Known about the structure:
By secondary structure, this protein is of the alpha/beta class. The chain folds into two domains: 32-115 and 224-291, Periplasmic binding protein-like II (D-Maltodextrin-Binding Protein, domain 2, 3-Layer(aba) Sandwich), CATH 3.40.190; 116-213, D-Maltodextrin-Binding Protein, domain 2 (3-Layer(aba) Sandwich), CATH 3.40.190.100. Helix content is 45%, strand content 20%. The protein has twelve helices and nine strands. The protein is globular, with a radius of gyration of 25 Å.
Amino acid sequence: xxxxxxxxxxxxxxxxxxxxxxxxxxxxxxxxxxxxxxxxxxxxxxxxxxxxxxxxxxxxxxxxxxxxxxxxxxxxxxxxxxxxxxxxxxxxxxxxxxxxxxxxxxxxxxxxxxxxxxxxxxxxxxxxxxxxxxxxxxxxxxxxxxxxxxxxxxxxxxxxxxxxxxxxxxxxxxxxxxxxxxxxxxxxxxxxxxxxxxxxxxxxxxxxxxxxxxxxxxxxxxxxxxxxxxxxxxxxxxxxxxxxxxxxxxxxxxxxxxxxxxxxxxxxxxxxxxxxxxxxxxxxxxxxxxxx
Length: 292
């Protein structure tokens, strides 16, 4: 009897050991990618589009990380907390961040190659150049007496501070958010008031309002810019298939303007991934070209 008990005990121990070493469920890969973005129209649209493609085509879990200040995005890339950021503007706007974090971040590809930043005014204003602002300073009154800008961490904010110095402008820059800036523009535009904002193209505001860039004879804002995808260092080695996808991710002015307008019309309270999936369905051939 004692011998039988010993044998049974041995079997139980063996089974328990085997069970402990054998997974009870099918093993799963924890494939997660973190995409960070700032509340800029093009970045919101592009990031959500990329997210649904990564989820539906590559079977990744995607963490969308909204960050208020673009400087924090680059710090997050450099530390490895963010995998990819799709809204890097070069060679002027985000040059300081690239210089600061260059060894810890990597370029994946160019998404858009005819971007522009500068000072923007409604077309009904009869000035065409930054150096005409001072002569008309008395026409900018009340809430419109300053250059209406966005967050202080944005590259266009520092470029505008340089423009104020370079042109010796009798203006200060008001720091706000993109949404607040557009709200001020909207009110001024409806009343045909004089207003100047910091602006960039592509952006849906150029389809919604008749606007123009002021000429920049001193070249403070540079010429055309590119919008590029950047990743943490080592991402392309860790995720070669996804890195190749981002290297193919490219949009024309018409395509990027279209998706931004659709997102703007849908509103921020809607399911933005659903909006992205619908745009994908309507532009299947384009997205397929990124995946081939």
